[in-house]
Amino acid sequence: MAASAALLLTAAACTPGSDSPSGSTSAPSTVKTDAAALGDVQLTVWDQEVRGGQAAQMAELVKQFQAKYPNIKVNRVSRSFDDLKTTLRLALSGNNAPDVVQANNGRSDMGEFVKAGQLVPLDEWAKAYDWGSRYPGSVLQYSRYSADGKTFGEGNLYGLPQVGEVVGIYYNKEKLTKLGVQPPQTWAEFEDALAKAKAAGEVPMQFGNLDKWPAIHVFGTVQDRYVPADQITTLAFGRPGASWKTPENTKAAEALVSWVDKGYFNQGFNGQGYDPAWQDFGKGNGVFLIAGTWLQADLQKALGDKVGFMLPPGEQADAKPVVTGGTGLPFAITNKAKNADAAAAYINFITSPDAMKVLTSTGNLPIADTSEQQAPAGLAGDIFTSFGTAVSKEGLVPYLDYATPTMYDTIGAALQDLLAKKATPAQFLEKLEADYSKFAGK
């Protein structure tokens, strides 16, 4: 441990642009916002914008950025979410780290990078570019950490996201019509629709959990119906004062297992990948799909006006929404950035009001100025409305894997076992409680 810490300090001390002789990763006291006056810069950017509309918006914004600032050459490296998560940790500790990265907000990624001093606080650039006027505090909290990486949701700003996210329910309108079912307005109606789909020989819900993380979203959707929102937030932010071993969480786990018992998922879901699952849904196989708004462009292209999106319904039709969501992966500046001002200028450009228009036109959900955009009719309209409702009614709860540095792996593996009936709900919750309590305490 001591040797590793020494290596990190040495790397930080050599960081170009660091004003501190001790090699701390604090932002410079003065920043430069005239990107055209920064001279020739090579900027290496790693992102995970690889799917349809995600890739299209990023390609267009990089093109526009380089046209405006020909002195800054962007070397964009695009990787899938899983590939980025696997390679980023090693890259940040090496000598050839990228300048700008998309880092998962969670403790296992951004929290650990902050703790290791591998990311630069963005607060000085946030002031210079006035990001606070574009991004409400409720959004920025998802990219804030204390300098030691311990406290999530407070402290320095370490990233800025482009998109908003909410995990909801995609549905095939044509199949619902054949079943004689309207889009459900309550949780009971939703479960009734799943039962009718099964009885009619349809796949009630497409689900691919080979990657393990998709089940986090499905369980989170069920949990949101049974567990008070404040308890979910405490657990997901890894703060002391809550417990996984509660009657409410037990009911949620039991409800998820009951979907397996009733055959509501496609066969072999634990061995099917996430992408093949949503692609099957896009081919017309399945009535429902629990997934995030990031699939908007791809499912719109595949199903056209046959696909709809809604927030998971509550116990009552007019219930306040409680829904998993927040922001897409924020863009951060590494402590190895050769020109941090150029890196900040890039982040500012791809999150600007004009960038939000590009995001809208390419089938994405902009996190800033959302109400100012003219969303197309159909699926995009459903998603913009759903996200707006969740934000305006303060119904968003964090992703569960944010909780601890190891929760991503813990809950993913535990959910696979739960869904495979290799663990009981009590055993499942015991694993989560052990991870959570070890980190957050009692």
UniProtKB/TrEMBL annotation:
Domain of life: Bacteria
Pfam families recorded: SBP_bac_1 (PF01547)
SUPFAM superfamilies to which the protein is assigned, alphabetical: Periplasmic binding protein-like II (SSF53850)
PANTHER family: ARABINOSE-BINDING PROTEIN-RELATED, DIACETYLCHITOBIOSE BINDING PROTEIN DASA
Name by which UniProt lists this protein: Extracellular solute-binding protein
